[in-house]
Amino acid sequence: MAKTVRKKPKRVVTKIGDVFCVEFPDNTKGYFQYIANDITQLNSSVIRAFYTHYPIGQDVNIENIVKDKVDFYAHTILRAGIDFDNWYKIGKSSDIGEENIQNILFTTVPFDFTILSNNIIQKINPLDNWEIWHIGQDMVNVGSFPVSLIDKVYQGDVIAFHQIVNRIKLGYYTNNNPMNEVLKRYPRPEVHSYVRRENESRQTYLCFKGNDFEKGVVKKGEKLVRISADEDNPVYEELQNGKFSDTNWKYREFITEEEFYQAWDAANQSH
Fold first, then answer.
1. How many domains does one find in the chain?
2. Residue 123 lies in domain
3. pLDDT in tens, 189-214
4. Distance of alpha carbon 227 from alpha carbon 236, whole angstroms
5. What is the rounded distance in angstroms from the CA atom of residue 63 to the CA atom of residue 9?
6. Residues 66, 167 within the same domain
7. pTM for the full model?
8. What tens digit of pLDDT does each residue of 129-138 get?
9. What pLDDT is recorded for position 123?
10. Taking Cα atoms as reference points, which of 232, 234, 197, 200 lies closest to residue 218?
């Protein structure tokens, strides 16, 4: 089924409570809701994204959507996503999860430098300077990240619209961010992720299903070797036991399904 064809309105007015739909290439869709503005973070829009995905053709009642499990909270610019046709408004609900809004905890880290009063640039470690805050309240510098908050915080940067789509579709952002060293990324269980990592001795192409390794290709020089999760291969046991969340994958390391299978097919032909 092709992506829904819609007549684009001249101007979409956004208000707190609005619910938006995001359509994916696999003919499914997800939803999020605009729930607040955060003056602490550039007065950007705060959204809550819901976990369930639906077939594109399925009619879903808005009140059922907003009663779904919340997958994550984030800041974004709604207008950008509308203008670039990454999401569209389907309606509004007065249920914005108001009882939880003041409990949402965001976090961020600074750049890897600071400018001193004499205009000298000083290098710093972002991971020694975590800041946390609730919507509309001052940021608090907590230094190193408190382990007790690991499952209680959400990345608080203003997230680009295409990364919001990635987060809903895949379960994780694909951009580079030092926070990923601590706030591990976990794919949705049905998602296949494809990555390529290079070092001086080899190229490794990996396919994960959810958080688990499924298969891969190791290239050393002109030699290509296939590896699979269900094979006993002591040489590549570390790769087979690896989890997607173990690694802080960089944006440039993500590849397409087609790129992965080019390497997979080439490995078969090299035997």
1. 2
2. 12-174
3. 999 999 999 988 899 999 999 999 99
4. 8
5. 24
6. yes
7. 0.92
8. 999 999 999 9
9. 87
10. 197
